[in-house]
Specification:
This protein is an all-alpha fold and 422 residues long.
């Protein structure tokens, strides 16, 4: 448990690491690696499901694919391979182009990059037990080398998610986005994903395309992916209320909980891992439309000083108040999930809604366990904020977690957190 906690703490760094390509091109407040992983994981689930691939394998591969960047950093052709000129105009001009290399040069540089990232990933995994280490490394290696078709599939989806993000940042007609088109089109070979690229072209460029199989369904997946992208820059409300500067986003929190579900869910033999992972991805999807919510924000007084006094304590409510807040939130969130999934395939829509409901009501073993992991994710993040800012105090979260957690694995993790930091 100690080793798993240390691993988890290290991966929190990905929630503060902006992706290098966007930084170099001057994107203001760009996505972090954690946020990128979140959307790649969701996209992998949706399209692996459509392809009838193993969705659990796809999600794990997506989740592991950039973990090496905790120590390796986010490597781009510009950042790692080229000596960028100091002159800003020349630098800007170069960054507007794409890196074109011979096959031999690509293979040479790809090998060097792989060796560097492998070394970094093994360093990250070193404290873990052998079984966990092997599982995480196998998923990452599958992504890098395409050991299975699912590994190849997720690697292509990673490029597609980056392409979508480039279009969102720069607009479809801008040169940087066209550079990502070059790389993406060079890599994509799966027929379903080639059709998905056509749907992207139709959506952003108004390009007429020949009728393709399942076009409407692929368009609904694209709409959904664009909507959940809003979670990348949506700060978690509780941290905002507590005055945390640059708090984690909802997408970053989901990234952490997803990783916790994988690492600590293995300790629970009675849980369905595929279900647990999917539940972690969609447990806060409603925030796309409702914004992030907390029990506090419905009852906080208007006066700032009084609000601060409330936030210094654990929220203690009567059964009647708890019931009112729960059902008020539940109704709003349910409407948001239904709106968000409205155009998805009926079976997928039903699955997402059911997973969200089981989490919110803790009505399945997976929902009950994930709710406790979520509380621990909040606790750990709060402790890390307290370490950064001595004015921040985590005691109300400790009280809440002690009252909330009773699962043996969750309690053991909570005790390990206490030993680690206190």
């Amino acid at each position: 448990m100690k080793e798993s906690l240390n691993f988890l703490i290290e991966t929190h760094k990905l929630k503060k690491m902006p992706r290098t390509g966007w930084v170099l091109r001057g994107v203001e407040n760009p996505e972090t690696i954690g946020e990128h992983i979140f959307r790649v994981a969701f996209l992998s689930w949706l399209l692996a499901d459509k392809k009838k691939l193993n969705t659990k394998e796809a999600i794990k591969i997506a989740l592991s694919h950039d973990l090496c960047e905790v120590y390796a950093g986010d490597v781009t052709p510009f950042f790692y391979y080229l000596n960028l000129p100091k002159d800003q105009e020349k630098k800007k001009k170069l960054l507007m182009k794409w890196v074109r290399l011979s096959r031999k040069e690509k293979e040479k540089r790809g090998k060097k990059k792989l060796e560097m990232e492998k070394k970094a990933f093994l360093r990250l995994l070193k404290p873990l037990d052998q079984k966990t280490k092997q599982e995480l490394f196998s998923a990452w290696f599958n992504y890098e080398k395409g050991v299975t078709y699912t590994g190849k599939f997720v690697k292509q989806l990673d490029k597609i998610e980056t392409l979508i993000q480039a279009i969102e940042y720069f607009g479809p007609g801008k040169t940087p986005a066209m550079g990502w088109w070059e790389e993406t089109e060079e890599l994509i070979e799966d027929p379903l994903l080639l059709d998905f690229l056509k749907v992207i072209q139709k959506r952003f460029y108004g390009k007429k395309i020949a009728k393709i199989k399942d076009q409407k369904e692929l368009e609904s997946v694209l709409d959904f992916i664009l909507e959940i992208g809003k979670l990348k820059r949506l700060p978690r409300l509780y941290w905002n209320l507590r005055g945390v500067k640059n708090p984690e986003s909802v997408a970053e929190h989901i990234f952490t909980l997803l990783l916790m579900a994988w690492v600590f869910g293995k300790e629970k033999k009675n849980l369905h891992m595929n279900k647990l992972l999917k539940m972690a991805i969609c447990h806060e999807l409603s925030a796309v439309y409702t914004g992030d919510t907390t029990p506090y924000d419905r009852i906080l007084p208007a006066d700032n000083q009084q609000r601060e006094e409330v936030l210094k304590k654990m929220l203690r409510l009567s059964k009647k108040e708890k019931k009112w807040i729960f059902f008020a939130d539940y109704r709003e969130e349910k409407k948001a999930i239904e709106k968000l999934t409205k155009k998805l395939r009926p079976s997928l829509k039903k699955e997402i809604l059911l997973l969200w409901r089981e989490y919110r009501t803790k009505s399945s073993p997976e929902g009950y366990f994930l709710a406790q992991l979520n509380a621990l994710a909040v606790l750990l993040q709060g402790i890390l904020y307290e370490k950064e800012d001595k004015k921040f105090f985590v005691s109300p979260i400790w009280e809440w977690t002690f009252e909330f957690c009773d699962d043996p694995v969750a309690v053991e993790l909570m005790e390990e957190i206490k030993k680690k930091f206190y």
